[in-house]
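Tokens as discussed.
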């Protein structure tokens, strides 16, 4: 074996011996150069604007100043005969476990009834009612991802302007009284958004408030349930039933007595825009 051959063999052996080390270093450099996994971005806010028609009737009794409590039993048909206008809608914002929503309702309506008592008195009742509600909800750890049940806390503001008059065969003129009151109730409740599948869903809401606090009602409560359908990613419609009970009384003087104990209830239909 010549000198040149021996040197070539030594060089080849050295190169082979260094190859694994170079490969390991290259692998280490490749691993170091690989970007670290990025944390997933939080889901953004989702919004829904809804317009609805509430075919409401009113049951209960109303007393204004010196007039006695007058029973009120107004059906939706009665309301439509004396319908003067209404605005109804709500807005919802949702992100992760949090839900914020607001609802506005304004209506002007009235009715005339003949009571089956002595003298066949005729009662004319007109009211202008404004309701503004708002609440925040936090999802409870129950159910799967499609079953969103939240505990809610919020408020319900109501302003009522009422006018009541009584005409009787025994009295040759009408006795009437009018007054306006407003009150603010804290509310606590539950809200449900349940996705049955990609198209169908169920929404429900129940709350209670007032509790006889200053500037609040004695008691107010609300309940609604609706079944809806998603036509696409942007539009949905729903049909449901809603009821709102209010027991409010304000006595500021012997001639300033205002009593409002009623339940507004009836079916509703809505159309919602999601974005």
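Sequence:
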């Amino acid at each position: 074996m010549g000198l040149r051959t021996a040197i070539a063999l030594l060089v080849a052996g050295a190169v082979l011996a260094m190859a694994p080390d170079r490969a390991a270093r290259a692998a280490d450099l490749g691993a170091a150069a690989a970007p670290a996994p990025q944390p997933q971005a939080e889901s953004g806010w989702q919004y829904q604007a809804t317009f609805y028609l509430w075919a409401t009737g009113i049951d209960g009794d109303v007393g204004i100043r010196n007039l006695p409590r007058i029973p009120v039993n107004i059906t939706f048909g009665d309301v439509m005969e004396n319908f003067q206008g209404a605005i109804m809608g709500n807005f919802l914002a949702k992100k992760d476990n949090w839900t914020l929503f607001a609802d506005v309702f304004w209506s002007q309506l009235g009715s005339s009834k003949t009571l089956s008592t002595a003298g066949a008195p005729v009662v004319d009742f007109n009211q202008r009612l404004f309701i503004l509600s708002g609440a925040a909800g936090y999802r409870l750890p129950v159910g799967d991802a499609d079953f969103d049940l939240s505990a809610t806390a919020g408020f319900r503001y109501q302003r009522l302007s009422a006018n009541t008059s009584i005409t009787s065969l025994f009295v040759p003129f009408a006795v009437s009284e009018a007054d306006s009151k407003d009150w603010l109730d804290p509310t606590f409740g539950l809200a449900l958004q349940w996705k049955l599948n990609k198209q169908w869903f169920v929404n429900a809401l129940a709350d209670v408030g007032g509790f006889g606090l200053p500037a609040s009602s004695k008691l107010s409560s609300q309940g609604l349930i609706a079944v809806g359908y998603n036509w696409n990613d942007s539009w949905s419609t729903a049909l449901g039933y809603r009821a709102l009970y209010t027991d409010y009384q304000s006595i500021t003087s012997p001639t300033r007595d205002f009593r409002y104990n009623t339940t507004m209830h009836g079916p509703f239909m809505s159309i919602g825009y999601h974005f």
